[in-house]
Design a protein that fits this description.
75% of the residues lie in helices and 0% in strands. It is built from 3 helices and no strands. It starts with 7 loop residues before the first helix and ends with a helix. 5% of the residues are buried.
Length: 65
């Protein structure tokens, strides 16, 4: 089964998690997701558009499979 394509937030989460864990090494994944989610909600439209474009490309590639 082909996995579902990632959405824009998942791409953002993947980009931000390593640096977030460097700063907070003892935090669990649930907390990381919660904190990165707060960061996502405060991001500019420009940043969100960047990740939305990555998600759109992923979706297009997914449709070809």
């Amino acid at each position: 089964k082909i996995p579902r394509p990632k959405n824009s937030f998942i791409f953002y989460l993947q980009d931000k998690t390593p640096s977030f864990l460097k700063i907070n090494p003892n935090i669990n994944r649930r907390e990381v997701s919660r904190e990165v989610g707060k960061m996502w909600r405060n991001e500019t439209e420009e940043v969100k558009k960047y990740y939305a474009e990555k998600a759109r490309i992923e979706l297009e590639n997914h449709k070809l499979k």
